[in-house]
Design goal:
The structure holds 2 protein chains of 2 kinds. Chain A has a domain at about 50-265. Helices cover about 80% and strands about 5% of the residues of chain A. Chain A contains 14 helices and 4 strands. Chain A has helices at about 1-10, 10-30, 40-65, 70-90, 95-120, 125-140, 150-160, 165-185, 185-195, 200-205, 210-235, 245-255, 270-285, 290-315; strands spanning about 145-150, 160, 165, 235-240. A two-stranded antiparallel sheet of chain A has the order 1-4. In chain A, strands 2-3 form a two-stranded antiparallel sheet. Chain B is built from 12 helices and 12 strands. Chain B has helices spanning about 5-20, 40-55, 70-85, 95-110, 125-130, 140-155, 175-190, 205-220, 230-240, 260-265, 275-295, 310-315, and strands at about 30-35, 60-65, 90, 115, 135-140, 160-165, 195-200, 225, 250-255, 270-275, 300, 305-310. In chain B, helix 2 (about 40-55) packs across helix 11 (about 275-295) and helix 6 (about 140-155) packs parallel to helix 7. The chains are: A mainly alpha, B alpha/beta. The interface between A and B is large, with 60 and 49 residues.
């Protein structure tokens, strides 16, 4: 009965598989490392997953709508660098620097969405262009060097904890909640999924594909902006090289969470489980002090296993 | 529904891969080393120095390596994970001083001694951040650039040589220091020297070759190429050889890698400023043991940066050469 419910609903099946995988990793590392199941380590895992998690929530919207955004990590670096520049060199108030930097991410996303609509070019190519532009802008703003040493009040706030929960984790939870509301409780989320399923079907039902696309990339950009600010708070620096290849990790997490790479199916909860799978894996291997060469091998094996399991599930 | 046999097989495979590579049980001595990049020969050699010295001293340190030399957040996460082991000392080769200080602050708050290898965080800088380093050992990249400039002065007869600088990865602090160190020293030593271009080849041999080819086309009377690492210097050497300018253009690299030393002996490269990461690794172990057993703090040690040229390599009498790997 339970199995039938799962196999009838691809979203539930993916979530169940991802959850099972996460639990299996948890059990494995609990037995192999005495440090794994401590509160401080769980905080470590969540804190370490926060930046990728925010990018992945944004990527969930993009993938749900049938697109790919390769610019998310570069936009993240740009937003973090601009924020650090504003706080340190521009002497901006944090109340200005933080929202301006997050909004800058949204603007980058809107530009990417607009260019995709305008040129009808694949999002892969357009976002690749935005990736270069955003990364170059980050280098130009920072003159190629990390902007280090932010005001104490900003860093204390960003690296602190509220009721023993680290601020980065709270930001991640807020981002997840907002993403979940947007994707499941609003027309915009539904339209994004329909667009990902079929552009023709979307337009036949009166959905403006262009407008939804623009919003999707705008939302993803805002999440990149939040990730950029969070990265800056965590490392106490605006780093123009920040997050190289984070966009691929985020896409991997979304797919691990059961999203269809070609659109139409994605869940925020699945994405977060995907992010946690990767976070737990990395943390567990670090706790065991596994050599980096083996870590890379191992992560590849796990991803292949996850892909294999998802195929087995659907065949049945 | 979930294929249990496949999963069981997978987890058995996982055990087979993970357990032999695990160093979790080997850290009773409480020495943790965190290195900035596993994909970089410089850090690999530094790691070799640590392992050899640890073996000689009879300790079994845990060595972590960040995935690559650009992932500051990743290195910070490794540091936080390493703290769970509650080691006696954490010796960190950090990507930048920001990451190093962040890590050190958290370690100190837990009563763990901290130290720097590669001189990314100096003792003074740490003190300003309220951290007492047990030691800092490394070479100064600004000084490395300066040494290259001094070498240029010795091999150039013209007072106004035309110089191409090939920079490494944009945003890399060591790269920036190597370039600014070279620039300021060359301006001080040879005020009439002309830097015709300062371009990034992102640490890549082929890109450096292309940069050199392009600039020599534009500036056929180029005299000097200074590259911020040996890979790029070797790429530039190929460009110079392709254009048959070996007798005119002198090339200087940084790091003193095995390839570069061979090229120097073959006459394709003029010199390389060596950084001796093996010695740094070795000294970091000596100083860490000293700090843990004798509670010494605040030691600052700068490793030598010999300029390797053909004469020095052929003579093979400099005692520092035994640390060149």
């Amino acid at each position: 009965m339970f199995a039938r419910i799962l196999t009838q609903n691809p979203n539930r099946l993916s979530l169940a598989q991802c959850l099972f995988f996460l639990a299996a990793l948890g059990v494995f590392f609990s037995f192999t490392s005495p440090y794994f199941l401590s509160v401080s380590n769980i905080n470590n895992i969540l804190t370490a997953s926060a930046v990728i998690g925010l990018i992945a929530v944004g990527a969930t919207f993009v993938i749900a709508s049938g697109h790919i955004d390769l610019s998310s990590a570069a936009v993240m670096a740009l937003c973090g660098t601009v924020c650090a520049w504003g706080l340190q060199k521009g002497e901006w108030s944090p109340w200005i620097a933080l929202p301006v930097s997050v909004s800058l991410g949204g603007v980058c996303g809107l530009v990417t969405g607009f260019l995709i609509t305008l040129t009808k070019a694949p999002s892969f190519i357009v976002s690749l262009g935005m990736m270069s532009i955003a990364r170059a802008a980050a280098y130009i703003v920072s003159h190629g060097m990390p902007i280090y040493g932010l005001p104490d009040n900003v860093i204390t706030g960003g690296q602190g904890a509220i009721a023993s929960v680290p601020v980065p984790v709270l930001l991640l939870l807020t981002g997840i909640f907002l993403g979940w509301v947007l994707l499941t409780q609003t027309k915009f989320g539904l339209h994004a999924l329909i667009l990902g399923d079929s552009v023709f079907a979307a337009e036949a039902t009166g959905i403006s594909a262009n407008r939804v696309r623009l919003k999707v990339f705008g939302v993803a950009g805002l999440y990149s902006g939040m990730a950029g600010v969070l990265f800056m708070l965590r490392t106490n620096a605006g780093d123009p090289t920040a997050g190289q290849s984070y966009e691929l990790i985020a896409i991997t997490a979304v797919i691990l969470g059961g999203a269809n790479l070609f659109g139409g199916r994605a869940t925020i909860i699945g994405t977060m489980l995907g992010v946690l799978c990767l976070g737990v894996l990395q943390n567990g291997l670090n706790l065991l002090a596994v050599s980096t060469y083996y870590q890379i091998l191992f992560v590849g094996m796990v991803l292949l296993a996850a892909a294999f399991l998802s195929r087995v599930g659907y065949r049945r | 529904m979930i294929p249990s046999k496949s999963l069981l097989a997978f987890f058995l495979l996982m055990l087979a891969v993970v357990l032999p590579s695990t160093k979790a049980q080997a850290d009773e001595d409480g020495y943790v080393f965190i290195l900035a990049a596993h994909d970089n020969p410089y850090w690999n050699i530094l790691g070799e120095g640590i392992k050899d010295a640890a073996k000689a001293k009879g300790i079994t340190p845990v060595i972590y390596e960040a995935q690559n030399g650009r992932d500051a957040e990743g290195e910070l996460t490794i540091c936080l994970t390493a703290l769970l082991r509650k080691p006696k000392i954490i010796v960190m080769g950090s990507l930048n001083s920001s990451v190093g200080i962040q890590c050190f602050k958290k370690a100190v708050a837990q009563g763990i001694m901290v130290a720097d290898v590669d001189a990314t965080v100096s003792v003074d800088e740490a003190e300003k951040a309220g951290i007492k380093l047990a030691f800092s050992v490394g070479s100064d990249n600004t000084h490395v650039g300066g040494e290259a400039a001094k070498y240029v002065q010795t091999v150039t007869v013209k007072p106004d040589p035309k110089i191409l600088i090939i920079e490494g990865i944009a945003g890399s602090v060591p790269n920036q220091k190597r370039v600014t160190g070279f620039r300021s020293k060359i301006q001080a030593l040879m005020p009439q020297a002309i830097i015709v271009a300062s371009l990034s080849a992102e640490g890549d041999r082929l890109k450096a070759m292309n940069v050199a080819l392009d600039v020599i086309q534009r500036q056929p009377d180029l005299d000097i190429i200074y590259a911020a690492n040996d890979d790029m210097a070797l790429g530039a050497a190929e460009a110079v050889r392709t254009l048959h300018r070996e007798t005119r253009i002198k090339i200087i690299g940084v790091d003193g890698t095995a390839d570069a030393r061979k090229a120097i002996l073959d006459g394709r490269l003029n010199a390389s400023v060596a950084q001796l990461p093996y010695l740094m690794g070795k000294r970091s172990v000596d100083l860490a043991i000293d700090a843990v057993t004798n509670h010494k703090t605040g030691q600052s040690e700068t490793t030598a940066t010999p300029v390797l040229d053909k004469a020095l390599l052929i003579a093979n009498t400099d005692p520092l050469l035994r640390y060149v790997r």
